[in-house]
């Protein structure tokens, strides 16, 4: 069962604030390279000065599956924190800080495609149209949303390498690289490929919270991050973070003007409760996308 980490930290586990040695925290390289994710972790750590000073370090480059294995093995020399989508298995194997770091926006997906493939999407208004046109979705082999898409009757092509998926898209191996609205512009800015475009009319949504994870022995770090995020929510700086990094993509993507397909997540993690659920629901209200998707796959309508 997932552990509510904020309730299990012994009082003596907190570091002394006057420690002269900064705590080194190794963040998974893809998160470290993301301005938004690094900024939020830095915000949480800054809100907890009683735990002492710290420095953030970039992990060696590794795919998501390996990063999670290193966390599960408590290999703190490789990586100590990773922000990834939640799943029951991940919450069992690791300690999850159960506050969705982007308010749940990772579960709002648009299609990155190529200019040549854009006509394949024209006129799609139903999920059945997506299936009938054999639109294939590219996803990471270790990503929880791979099986969410499959459970909803969609064709999925996988690969463990994130960068390789872009090459596969351009090679015609699939038509839609489904990216979260909180990350898609950052992805394309890194890629710098004018042939890659965002499909303008479709939006796929499913409940999939996005958490910071640490190894099970790193309880103090988990609690520090959760405490810092809760303080940021309470004093309004979390909302400022959301506005700084995510308001512009939400507006630019015209989410409320798209055909919305709510997909079920049969593997909804049990940790989506409390303040994290409130943040997620508030985000959904703000972007006007209707009711929270259910936990069952969408019907073929």
Automatic annotation (TrEMBL):
This is ABC transporter substrate-binding protein. It comes from Marinobacter halodurans.
